[in-house]
Design goal:
- The protein is built from two helices and three strands; from the N terminus they run E-E-E-H-H.
- The protein has about 60 residues and is α+β, with helices and mostly antiparallel strands.
- The chain has a domain of about 35 residues.
- A three-stranded antiparallel beta sheet has the order 1-2-3, with no helix packed on it.
């Protein structure tokens, strides 16, 4: 997962790469929830360190 240099596009990798247009209407909590739904997994340690520096060490995404 990575943001474009201008911060307007989010690239999410997996079996395929998906590009998402990032809107400013989402608050940070809604953005995290959306990423969790789209990834269908929790953030990796590297993703957490890069994008969620203020989060605790516990899971970010709810488990099903």
């Amino acid at each position: 997962m990575a943001f474009s240099p201008d911060g307007r596009t989010l690239a999410v990798g997996g079996p395929t790469v998906q590009l998402w247009s990032v809107t400013t209407s989402l608050n940070p909590a809604e953005a995290v929830e959306q990423v969790c739904r789209d990834l269908d997994r929790d953030f990796t340690a590297d993703e957490r360190a890069a994008y969620l520096r203020d989060e605790s060490a516990g899971p970010v995404c709810p488990s099903d």
